[in-house]
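thread from #wetlab-drylab

HS: before we spend reagent money on co-crystallization trials with phenylalanine, can we at least see a predicted complex? here's what I'd submit
DV: go for it
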Amino acid sequence: MTPEDWKAKLSLTRDSFLSALIKTDSAGIAEFETKYLGRKGELTLLLRDLKDFPIEDRKALGALGNALKTELSAALDARKTETGAGAVNLEKSKFDLTLAGYPFPRGGLHPLTIVADKMYDGFQKLGFSIAEGPLIEEDYFNFEALNFASDHPARDMQDTFYVDLKDSRGKDLLLRTHTSPVQIRTLKNQEPPVRVVSAGRVFRSEAVDASHSFAFHQMEGFYVDKNVSMADLKWTLEAFMKDLFGSSAKISFSPSFFPFVEPGAQVAVSCVFCKGSGAACPVCKGTGWIELLGAGVIHPNVIKACGYDPEKWSGFAFGAGIERFAMLLYGISDMRMLYENDLRILKQL
Ligand code: PHE
């Protein structure tokens, strides 16, 4: 067969297809489809003959053949719609469409995600936006720029896991020990004023017990602008806690040390269980206070490391353990419950 013969055959197929199609009703359409487009259909066989042509012919003829196939399929679909052949015949269907479906268990958000979202909501109401940072971090962002000198004993407070890979400064990469590196990454990219919160996983070389884990979650928050003080920090955290725990929640600050803040504070919220009245409260142990986060005014060295003048810019920062919030909000006494993925527990939360 010459290419010309093949083209003529193609054209004949087109004519006979289109003229027969108009005469085909819904009962005959399946047979019609097989006759032309089925595995041994006229057009299919014609396209198969292409293999005997040299490659240049095959390309040109193949394009023609495929274009025709598209055209005829569209015409067939249109005819199906016209004759109602595509519709499902409910009377004859083998399926009982009135039967109830199988219950399909729907997944849900993990309690830690729900709590992080709640915390995000609270801070978004106060004008904070959300940022993210990597879990595998460089020494520079996790420690150095946060004013941890390389021999500072505060590094031992956050003993971590090192990765057998070097960063761009030749130091071992590590799993971040806190969310504070997001402060550095954000401020290096975004000029103040900035108000950011960032939740995520952090890691420490720590033995697991009811209130410790080698992997847990934190939410970092920070605000850098002109004239930001401890008073702004206090107001912000108080507004947030009242929003989360109710208007009777109070907060207390006590002095604490973190290399990247000065002054630094440990922040506690009034016990939401005993409201500070129960000497035997198992959650606050009768103190009336629950320690929830570390915070403080950002150290001038950190502002400098991010490339800003600490005489001009100041800020506050805080870091909160999300598990602690989840334990308080859900009344859980052992944080391991949050990691065991026991559906009997997760379903209750
Ligand atoms: N990054 C500190 C920690 O993980 C918490 C913190 C954040 C303290 C911000 C002060 C300011 O312990």
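DV: The mean pLDDT is 91.
HS: ok that's useful, forwarding to the group
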